[in-house]
Amino acid sequence: MFVLIWANLFFSVKGSIVDTGASAWGQQHCVGRYCVTLSERELTAEAGLCVVIPCSFTTADEFTPKHTVWYKCEASQHSCSDDEIIFHSNKNTDKKVQSGFEGRVSCLEPDVSQNNCSIIINDLKESDSGSYQLRVTGELNGKEDGFTFIPRVTVSVKGLNQKPTVMSPTLTEGQQATLTCVAPGLCSGSVPEITWTWRGAGGTESYIKGNRTDFNTDNPTSFTQRHISTLTFNPSAEHHNTSVTCKINFTGRKSTEETLTVHVNHMKEITISGITTVREGDVLNLTCSLESFPPSMIVWSKLGSDTNLHSYSGSARLVIENMKPEHSGQYICAVTYMNNTLKKDVNITVIYNRAAQIIGNTTVREGDVLNLTCSVESFPPSVIMWSKLGSDTNLHNDTGSATIFIQNIYDGEALQNNQTLNSNSGTKEVEYATIDFSLLKTKPARTQESTKTEYAEIKRIIKKEQENDGGDDGKMLEGEMKHCEPEKKDEEDEAVYSTVNDIIDDN
Question: Cα(119)–Cα(70) distance, rounded to whole angstroms?
Fold first, then answer.
């Protein structure tokens, strides 16, 4: 009572509280030798978290502080009443703390002699907003007494907006790593529930429990704690570009979360897609790609050439218009991934077909050798087959080129070939071509004289047949040719019947 009267007397004399200067925590306000330093700014906090009210005080030398008491009441009240106590450092007092604040308020420095009156309020609610006042109790000249400081601190509690902090090291496929989630706020109240959620491809979710670690900080005192959860796993390519969420559930159904997109350094195999066999004149369209993170640099080149055909990051297309045979060959896709170079090659084939060419002499004498070569420039090599018109026999076949080789060309074959080649020639040639020597028997070699006798016999047969049958050429040539004895003939007959053509001409 003495202190309060003295304070009132001081106010009547001075008219106001004396400001003696600022400190790190705020402005110092004094009434005589009783001073308190509080933040003049409104303290803002979020529901579910905590708020620290920084405070320090000094008293007269004859006053010995024993305990600190904090109140919450309407700002219009000059002094808060005992039923509005939210914290009392004396655990043995009969003065009760408001039920809504029990267990949520603690002093940062239990030793009152250190003149530190700071408190922390945990598990905040929106209803915690209001005006807070300090009272220091103790002994004045050996008697119990106390001093209530008029300056107050205003606290405003809003909805929870702060998010946890999720930290990730560089993730590499196959190397164990740890993700860290730090809950917002430095609070020593109820331990929040921390859960991890992994959202994979297609939106599927899986819940994972992490290892939680709570540790004290040095600012402002050891009464504050930071809540941390860690998640250790072996990253793979399947984790790349997925998302992981750390969710913090505070007391009072207050929750907050943060999502992190996971990037995993990885590299899969090089793939080359497209058709590698194309026809001449068509378009070559190949794509070389490599799924990796970070993206790889890809360069196309042709074996034996210094020219880089195409390059790109992540995937590269190789397009060549109007393909030609010289475009065939080995093409190389070179991939540079994190200072390492990998290569994959592919063989390109161009299908083409040039016009066939026949090389050789197509006109030969009886008894000579026929040697013809047919060749075609193509890929893949063409199958070439020789055949004779009117015959079912394939004379020769090969791949790419074929040679027909016939020794000792005989009369029948020569005449039949002549029939084919000269079917459009004059009447005399056609008639000659109709002669069938296949029925002639092989006869011994004759002298020139006997040959002439055979021609003479043919002439006589022709004349006789013409006289009897009116010149029927078909019957004239049928039958076996007979050998005739040599006869004496006049010079005219021998000259006239010296060749078959002359015989035909005469008729």
Answer: 9
Specify the 3-state DSSP secondary structure of 467: helix
Instruction: Establish if 438 belongs to a structural domain.
Output: no
**Which structural domain range is residue 369 located in?**
357-408
Note whether 335 and 297 are within 8 A (CB). Answer: yes
Is 418 a domain residue? no
Place of tokens 């579910």: 48
The DSSP bridge pattern shows strands 43-46 and 153-158 to be parallel
**Are residues 123 and 174 both part of a single domain?**
no
- Here the CATH number for the domain that contains residue 330 is 2.60.40.10
User: What are the pLDDT digits (tens) for 304-363?
Assistant: 888 778 788 888 999 999 999 999 999 999 999 998 999 999 999 999 998 889 999 989
Name residues of the chain where pLDDT drops below 50: 1-24, 220-221, 411-507
In this prediction the pTM is 0.60
* DSSP class per residue in 292-330: EESPPEEEEEETT---EEEEEESEEEEEESS--GGG-EE
As a whole number of angstroms, the distance between CA 378 and CA 418 comes to 32
For 43-99, the DSSP string reads EEEETTS-EEE-EEEE--TTEEEEEEEEEEE-TT-SS--GGGEEEES-TT-SPPPPG
330-369 burial, b at 16+ Cβ within 10 Å, e below that, comes to: ebbbbbebeeeeeeeeeebbbeeeeeeeeeeeeebeeeee
Q: Which residues contact 36 (CB under 8 A, 6 or more apart)?
A: 28, 29, 30, 55, 56, 57, 117, 134, 149, 151
Element housing 147 (H / E): strand 143-148
Same domain, 31 and 105: yes
Question: Which residues are paired to 212 by β-bridges?
Answer: 229
Question: Structural domain tally of the chain?
Answer: 5
Q: How far is CA 313 from CA 270, 294, 295, 334, 451, in A?
A: 13, 10, 6, 11, 91
Does 39 lie in the same domain as 12?
yes
User: What's the first-to-final CA gap in the chain, in angstroms?
Assistant: 172
Neighbours of 302 (CB within 10 A): 18
Q: Alpha-carbon distance 60 to 115, whole Å?
A: 12
Residues 41 and 29 in one domain: yes
**108 neighbors 117 (Cβ within 8 angstroms):** no
142 with 214, same domain: the answer is: no
Same domain, residue pair 279 and 333: yes
> Please, are residues 413 and 431 in contact by the beta-carbon 8 Å criterion?
no
Predicted confidence at residue 318, as pLDDT, reads 94
> What pLDDT is attached to residue 390?
84
